[in-house]
Amino acid sequence: MAFTIKVKVNGEWKTADVEPEMTLLELLREQWGLTGTKLGCDEGDCGACTVLFDGKPVNSCLVLAVRADGHEVVTVEGLGTAERPHPLQSAFEQHGAVQCGFCAPGMLISAKALLDANPEPTEQEIREALAGNLCRCTGYTKIVEAVKSAGRAMKSSVK
Amino acid sequence: MKHFEYFSAHSAEEAVALLQKYSPDALPIAGGTELLVRMKQNLIHPKVLVDITHVPEFQGIALTEEGLRIGSLVTHAEVAASPLVRQFAPAVAAASGSVGAVQTRNLGTLGGNLVSCVPSIDSAPALLVLEAQAVVFGVNGRRQFPLTELFVGPRCSSLTPAELLEAVIIPRHNLGKPTCFSKFGRRKALTIALVNAAACVETNPERTHFSQVRLALGAVAPTPIRAYTAEAYLAGRPIAQEVLLEAGRLAAEDAKPIDDFRASAEYRRHLIGVLTRRVIEGALAGMPKV
Q: What pTM was computed for the model?
């Protein structure tokens, strides 16, 4: 039996009919075309599918779509656009933190959750916040630098 | 994933009634970080999932007359960040904070970790040294027993198919006692412990001798265990390096580590000695100065 669910995605309420075995990741990518969120390991190890679920980063491959009913989800498409990038997206570009790009959406979402809660994280806090996101180009150093720099940029723009 | 029927329960009674109605084809789902992975890997094929995440009785962290009650649906992230847990059972907060990574800690629950009965679960040792009780809800009501009795074997709990873990309770007399948790794995995040350990340490007022030590280990036996021989040895002994070394050696004898693809039994026995010293020294270091 399919379930009709309502999810607030990137600020806009959407409805969908989903089978119980559909994951939130499949719903986002295949029904709603939000392909910024990536399917990597499909078992919660790689973090490529990270989205914000009620403001907290989760692996969308491990969330049943039915469980998103009534909840708020933010994907990388909700961060910014090419014309108006989020400070994190600008920092990733400036610091060369994107190589093949496959991990970048998940990295950006995990970093956004960190900076929302802690605008001035230490390097250790950044590394812990990104520990669930694997980059197989191993470009971690530049990613950590980009997050640090975005935190500073976001703080100075608030002043 | 193969198709299944999905029900969302809104009370403990409704949840166990659904599980009983569809037994043996039904399983409860909470965080899903373990269950969905096993379903995707075709290891299990439940025909019915009963979502228990909206069951109010299984939520929340509270100080009660009995002690510190942590609902089974509390996530690892919530346990790790809870001011009550950090104050009264710091090793429990540290253990939950070491599970998986941020994303899995935001989904995975304390109860789900415990009932999985995987020998390496990180939440068990700290709760065992604090003599936690398990509160279980079933069709015939509640029962409560020492958490040790939940663990029967690898992936085997003492719960019947229509029973659910409702909460764990850390008894009042153990709240705030000096504890420490430590884990050794191949990396700090997203790792399955090769060995994990926790200690609860009490000393004489002069802080020269141990009065009582409880020590628990994971990933070194079919279930998480208490190291009773090492505990008995430590009682009344002086706080000294050679005593800690001997306690570590005895703890390794209390365990039954196996060779597997993660580590050899011999390496695990070595790690038991190292972690035994670390958790006892960690608990001592957390005590207020004499």
A: 0.96
